[in-house]
Specification:
It contains 20 helices and no strands. The protein is mostly helical. The termini are far apart. 31% of the residues are buried. Residues 15-34, 56-70 and 376-404 have low confidence and may be disordered.
């Protein structure tokens, strides 16, 4: 063992990379240069050390192969157990399967996990939670091939997927630069989802945006026609929001122009997306342009739109425009909120318009029972969520996109 250790130390000082095999040992001493060691020692070192390394590597490979076989054997045994108990105890069988898949994923044995799940599927047993667990594990390891494989199974055999599934799919693509492969995978998903493929494509675009993979979202967006899909307002709204949140407001405005040129009519969400993102980067001049266009198009702004516009102009020092918007809101019979009043009073005080601030404050105090408060906002949010959920259900039945 001491001799082997000395040989190993000598070889570590060598500047040549070895591929150990018996055919390379002969004559190796003539090709290796190790300072202060006579040439005949090189051959002796390699001749002594090569069998040791070969044995270690061979033992490791043997152990790894045996471990893989053991995992496969255990998976086959587990599969037989599930098949035997599923009919009489489906719920407990699903729980056991999900726990076993979680264990395999934690050990990094994703290939055995997918093989087990697909074997169960071939026996008409589909366990969505186990697939979701595996999809999350594949996303953590950036295994795009496996992620799309799992995603397609979920899409075909499980139906409408949660947002988490889409986000995990997007995360699995984080490290890939192979645009051709990505588009090929998305095209396969689109074909499987027909006739509701725009639902799926819109959500994939949205997920890429949420994961800050802007270029991939734009890539899919620009390839939609090649998928045999038709763009809709929701697709454009999603892209506008992705570009806006990334600070790419000029591209956002250009895409909005393309949207109108393509014959799509902007809706309330479209204009609010433009206004919110332009306001964030201080482009208040353009906010006014789109706010007026919104009004001219017959799309009425709501209380939150007014609040954000009033606060934005007030903070920028344009109290005149803030007051004009406030009066416009009241003329439209939109019930003001106590937050708008407080914000406006604070803005006017900072601008040195104390008398006007006091007047607005008195108006607020006299109108307090009729003002929109925190409870009203919560109630409105709940009603909006219920309304949106009903809309999603009905549009799903009609094969129409229901994102957002």
């Amino acid at each position: 063992m001491v001799a082997a250790s000395r040989c190993f130390n000598i070889l570590l000082r060598c500047k040549t990379t070895f591929i150990f095999s018996s055919s390379l040992v002969r004559g190796l001493g003539n090709r290796v240069s190790i300072p202060h060691y006579p040439p005949h020692n090189y051959f002796t070192c390699v001749r002594l050390f090569c069998p040791i390394v070969s044995k270690i590597v061979g033992n490791y490979n043997s152990l790894a192969t045996q471990a893989a076989r053991d995992d496969e054997g255990m998976a086959d045994e587990f599969l037989n157990q599930i098949l035997a108990t599923y009919r009489n105890a489906p719920n407990s069988s699903k729980e056991r399967c999900n726990a076993y898949v979680h264990k395999l994923c934690k050990a990094g044995n994703l290939s055995t996990a997918i093989r087990l799940l697909q074997s169960l599927r071939h026996n008409n047993i589909f366990i969505p939670n186990a697939y979701n667990t595996l999809l999350a594990a594949a996303a953590e390891r950036n295994q795009i091939d496996l992620s799309f494989r799992i995603f397609k199974d979920l899409l075909v055999f499980h139906g409408p997927l949660t947002l988490t599934c889409y986000l995990n799919l997007a995360r699995s693509c984080a490290d890939t630069n192979d645009c051709t492969a990505l588009i090929r995978y998305v095209k396969q998903v689109s074909d499987l989802a027909f006739p509701n493929n725009m639902i799926v494509i819109n959500r994939i675009i949205f997920a890429f945006g949420e994961c800050r993979q802007i270029e991939k979202a734009l890539l899919v967006f620009n390839q939609i026609k090649g998928f045999g899909c038709k763009l809709n307002v929701i697709t454009y709204n999603t892209i506008l929001d992705i570009l806006g949140r990334a600070g790419r407001v000029d591209e956002m405005v250009l895409e909005f122009t393309s949207m109108k040129e393509a014959g799509f009519v902007p809706d309330f969400i479209t204009y609010n997306t433009l206004l919110n993102n332009l306001r964030r980067v201080g482009r208040l001049d353009m906010c006014l342009v789109f706010f007026r266009e919104m009004d001219d198009s017959g799309v009425e702004p709501d209380l939150l739109t007014y609040r954000e516009m009033i606060e934005a102009f007030g903070r920028s020092g344009n109290t005149g425009e803030a007051l004009r918007l406030f009066n416009d809101m009241k003329q439209r019979k939109i019930r003001p909120s106590i937050y708008i009043y407080r914000s406006l009073v604070d803005i006017l005080k900072k601008a040195g318009k104390v008398d006007l601030a006091m007047s607005i404050s008195q108006e607020m105090n006299s109108s307090t029972p009729d003002l929109f408060g925190s409870k009203d906002f919560k109630r409105k949010r709940i009603l909006d969520m219920r309304s949106r959920a009903k809309g999603q259900a009905s549009t799903m039945n009609n094969g129409v996109n229901w994102l957002n």
